[in-house]
Design a protein that fits this description.
Shape: elongated
Number of strands: 2
Distance between the termini: 44 Å
Order of helices and strands: HHHHHEE
Radius of gyration: 20 Å
Strand order of the largest sheet: 1-2
Mean pLDDT: 84
Structural class: mainly alpha
Number of domains: 2
Low-confidence stretches: none
Helix content: 55-70%
């Protein structure tokens, strides 16, 4: 959550003191939608994916044979983040990957 989102959330919570939780959650959802619309109109990049969702996408793309750099380009995160996600997922090095340059690279298997 960035500073703008955090401030909007705090403002909503301050206004909703004494209201029930559903009303607070509804207000937060409306503020997030409004923030996304402002970002879209301003041409700002979309918010980052949640870690679990990003890791699901990284896992899927790796199983499809994409390289770490290709995955990084598609998910718009640094390749070191992709490498960390792959380690966290316990993904082995594939036999080959499709690179960002369109070249398929093969990796030798160690005994």
């Amino acid at each position: 959550m960035d500073d703008c989102q955090r401030e909007a959330l705090h403002a909503a919570l301050r206004q909703a003191v004494g209201a029930d939780l559903d009303a607070v959650l509804h207000e937060v959802a409306e503020l997030r939608a409004e923030l996304e619309e402002v970002r879209r109109r301003a041409g700002l990049r979309p918010p980052r994916l949640a870690r679990d969702e990003r890791r699901r996408q990284v896992e899927t793309m790796r199983r499809e044979g994409l390289s770490m750099r290709m995955i990084a380009a598609r998910t718009k995160v640094h390749r070191v983040t992709v490498a960390a996600d792959l380690r966290a997922l316990g993904m082995p090095t594939p036999e080959s990957t499709l690179g960002i340059d369109g070249v398929t690279r093969r990796y030798p298997r160690t005994a």
